[in-house]
Amino acid sequence: MEFVQFGPKGFQLKEHFQTIGDANCAVSGGSLLVTDDAAKAMAGADFVYSDVWYGDYEAEMSEAERLAVFMPKYQVNAELMAMATPHAKFMHCLPATRGEEVTDEVLDAEYSIAFDEAGNRLTAQRALLVYFLRPEVPNPIKVAAAEASLEASLAGIL
Fold this sequence. Notes:
By secondary structure, the chain is mostly helical. Helices cover 47% and strands 11% of the residues. It contains seven helices and four strands, in the order βαβαβααβααα.
């Protein structure tokens, strides 16, 4: 996989994590690029993933300071998505701050899979709740059947 992180200097992937990523890419054949150049970041992009601009930076910066750093260059909007491949999908872990990290036009577009992504996360969270609230001793026969079913499903997708 080719992984690109597009963000302003000072808010990019830390060097330590880039080193880990580079080592993983050497093994897998992938690549890692950290840039603040939109054209380089979006060239060949099949998926564009954004997250909210607050949280990690909330304690460090006021909203006005945060917007001054990220807006408008790092906002995912139609112009940015147009730089990606024609079949590119938009992803967001939600909740999104509409008008900040993503425009309504992108979040509500047919190529946005953010709401499907959130639905998948809900299913996974429910499964974890069931697992932790009703633990049971694994039945090797059930485990083998589930693994076979998963493998058959994945084979149909790939």
